[in-house]
Specification:
By secondary structure, the chain is mainly β. It has 2 domains: 104 residues, Immunoglobulins (Immunoglobulin-like); 583 residues, Maltoporin, Chain A, CATH 2.40.170.20. It is 6% helix and 53% strand.
Length: 827
Amino acid sequence: MIGTRLYSIIILSILIFAFAAHAQQNVFTITAKDPNGGVIPGARITVKSKTGAEQSAVANADGVVQFANLDGGDYLVIVDAAGFPRTAREATFGGSSTSLDVTLNIGSINANVTTTATRTQITTEDTAVPVTIVGRERLERQPVNTIGDIFRFLPGTSTTNEGAFQVRPRIRGLESNRILILVDGERLNNARTSTGNSGIEIGLVNVDGIETVEVVRGAGSVLYGTDALAGTINLITRDAPQRGGDRFRFGGSVNGYYSSNESGRRGNLALTGSDKRIAFRVSQSLERYANYKSGDTTGVSNTGPTFGFVSKDEVGNSQSHGSSTQVTLRTFFDGKNDLKIAYDGRRVSDIGSPLLTNGFGFNAYFPHSNRDKFNGRFETRNLTNYLASVSASFYVQDQDRVFTNVVQPVLPFFRGNFSETTTDTRSIGFDLQSNWLLGSKNFLTFGVSYFRDENKDARLTQTVAPPIVPNRTTSVPRADFGSVAFFAQDEFTFNNRLKFIGGVRVERFSSSSTMTDGFALPAGIRQFQLVDIGVANIASGLEVKETAVTGDFGAVFKVTDNISLTGRVGRSFRVANLFERFFTGAGSVGGFLVGNPNLKPERGINVDVGAKFRFSRVAGSVTYFNNTYRDFLVNTTAFDSRGCPVVLRTQPPFLADSVCNVTPSMSTILVQQTINFSRVRLQGFEAEAESSFRIGDLGFLTPGGNISYLHGNNLQANEPFNIVPRLKTVLSLRWNDAANRYYGEGQTRIVNKQDRLTTAFRASNGGDEPGYAVTDIRGGYNFRRERYRFGINAGVTNLFDRFYSEQFVLAPARGRSFVLGTTVELF
């Protein structure tokens, strides 16, 4: 009996020891460190495998997280810490590899992780397209009025328009609907927004609600469909992260922002809570901006009330006021399944269009532009040895906007004019995506996506002085635009040095309009001309269907562990939207437009080649691109089958022309129409680099910068392609102490004169587009502990108060402004 018991005890001891040894082998330790070798408490560390298995935890006071029950294999390690850019590393755990130290660098060119470039999490160094990541740390360090301001400083990008709401991005010389803007991977673009005249309102996403901005330069049509001609911008909103342990923990944050130039104020309050099963985040923001002031106007003659300035320096009609509400709820059923449901609401009112006002009583503004979005996402992971994950998402979004023109009366000659155009666009969409591991070399992403925009328009025109007779019309009939698409992309790892990435997309589009009360073609255009320009049946309803097939192929070759070569060639496209097909009426600032249901899609062939390098003290990249587009869309004078310009006669009787060349007068207006315009080529290069040096006990010095060059040609007319900034250089120098608590930074943006313009454009523009140089300085303090942090950032933008305008923008940019941002956060 004793022998049997002793034998049992020995066997049980061996089993317990073996189990403990096995458990110990499955505990992987990751330590977050700063560039000085010090640990970073409170860093959030996430590990994710190719199969979709994911764990996340907050580092303890020693900067350490231990992950248990992880299978050995390859993982993507992502580290987020206050005061540092997000850092990503690929690592292999198993065998003797049970620990990893991740050092967080100071600079903005970091080994980061992107989901936008490939629809899966991947390091920026493993992508075949150039990607810029702007994280929360940089958004706080570089306080901005609106998210559009960051595109002034990134490689390959610039901005159009001004004001705290109206600034919008350009990528490689293109703007508006030729850039696809996503919010958490779902379209912010809608099919009603006009392409050449306004563009997608990126200001509908509040700065304080954004965690990361991912900017992919180059065609994104294979993964995201229409509009991704020049690039794709994904605004990833702040989330409710899962926390380990059974104890439910509350947290929160308070953010503040002030800009002295326009007395701009913005505040945000957020409350968070989470445990290992559920997490939530609720936030509310308020903001208010008055008219901004331009730079020093000494010696500048075209200022004052007549030119849209309230006074010598104050830019009229540039104000806006807004608020934002975000609610996010996540449920973690187990280690494989989770559900996210969110609401994002934005209310912006009294939105001015800078300079669209003058001393004669003219004013153009948006009384409001609102957005409501509900979305949900379910993901299940690690389903089989081959099926890594499946995700399904949906969204419902309403965008409601009103644009108003007012011209005050001059009695008794003119009774004034008031017009108000309302657009209400509802968007619905869903996306189903699966990720497959096909052996050890192929990672396949396959999915189907669908979206539909439904639009309702209304327009009211009337005189300002009595007697007032309202006239209710519609510029765009009730219409919808949508698509269903199938896409597939494969990452083939040939060996540890060479990776191929290729994809294909097949998409079916449908645009349709119905007979709508208040929508009619004007009687002042002759019937045969309506037939000639293809709009004779537009009032009775039309339907247009088309199919787009596109694909791309790229490669990443690691010459060494520090240098990678990249290349990609692909097709891109953009389908004409509801505005271009159906809008018929007076333009926002004059002229008369008619739709064109017969438009073909814009199509491009896009080539990108580049190199990326990362050493211990220096990092950077260089890219050359060559993009050729055909069937480019432009607005121009409409011509009938005789080659005669189409005119709108405003005074009856509408008599037939005796000659072809009609001269516009007070009783005739030239009619404009969007047409397909042959071929355009845009090519250039983008480069960025930075280096970090230790300067003894004083900390680190990090010089850096980027340069972008763009060359555009109208291949049909063999002349320059206008409205593309030519050369931009950004130089920066940053100092921070060894613990990265204190920092100071100077940044200068140099934009060279653009003199490569057509003769006609130069004449209408009054000459070349002048160059300028603008300097900003800023500094701050960031204090962090395991469960809380405090940050303050202050600076001066446009330090020397320079009077200038962004190239091809009418309104001047902001003058000198003292800016202040504060953050208090509890984890």
